[in-house]
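Thread: Newbie trying to understand structure tokens

Hi all, I'm a second-year student working on a class project, and my supervisor (Dr. K.) asked me to get a predicted structure for one chain before our next meeting. I've only ever worked with sequences, so writing a 3D structure as a token string is new to me. If someone could post the tokens and maybe explain what I'm looking at, I'd be very grateful. Here's the chain:
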Amino acid sequence: MKKFLLIAFATCLGLSAQAQNTTEPKGKAIVHVFGDFHSALEADGNNRGFFLERSYLGYEYKLEEGLTLTAIMDVGSSKDVADMQRIAFVKNAMVSWKKDNFTINGGVIPTKQIEFQELFWGYRYIMQSYQGQHGYSSSADLGVSVAYVLDDLSIDATILNGEGYKKLQQSDGLYYGVGLTLSPIKGLFVRAYGCLNESGNKEQSNSANYTLFVGYKTDIVTFGAEHSRMYNTAYTEGADLFGYSLYTNIVLSPKTNFYARFDNIDTNHTLNALKAQQVVTVGAQFKLGKYVKLAPNVKFNMPKAEGAKEHCTAYLNFFFGF
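---
Reply by user tm_fold:
Sure, no problem. This is what the structure looks like when written as tokens:
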């Protein structure tokens, strides 16, 4: 698998050089950098400093006959490393083919479980969408996905390893997902998604997940609501994680947006006790030219675990890239 990923990435870089020598280049570089400065607002808080969350570096090249090659490296932190070292992962290394209303992706691809909501939310550099932020699923994995669009209806299906893009396949289980998206009127979107993630171990339970999403978007205002539940978290029988997210975005001017979001996370098992909380985020976004965004915001975390303290943190998130 490592050889496949390196070959795919090298191929895209080679095609990048070729594209730069043509009068009509068919490729584009991808550079996304996320970071922030944050400071706890409690009198006894010591959580403050500058933080570089991650950088996406890659290239996309469009071939003839609807084929597209994409390779993106994700340079960020890892839970397996205690200090601030940066670790590089292959975020995407995929081949896409689009013919009329049909699309197929193969390789290390974006997961359909998160992709639609993350694009609708639109502030990935501040927070992930609900499921990604709270550990329901990875945003990319190794496998294949297909999608078909028919007027106001879209259907997608996915088969993945189920381990996420930061791990190699470690078990014999696979991930199966199916999604349905409706847009009955202009600006209104309704999406339902369900998946099964096999444990690959007779001593563990399979994990299942469903999500329901409703969103409405105009040129001025956006509303989104998402409800999700994961059964048997970490393949542990009865360890469910469930909750919902509500958010809005208001365009105040071509360069200024206001946003607010409320996340509620619950559990019925001690395995997820530290995840159970309510999170309120309120802030604004300022576009400084075409490639730079600044987003001051305040985040209130209200843990539900007994004895856990509430805390409030001020952030200045930044994004630059293209």
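A couple of things are worth pointing out once you decode it. The radius of gyration is 20 Å. Helices lie at 2-20, 112-121, 130-133. Feel free to ask follow-ups in this thread.
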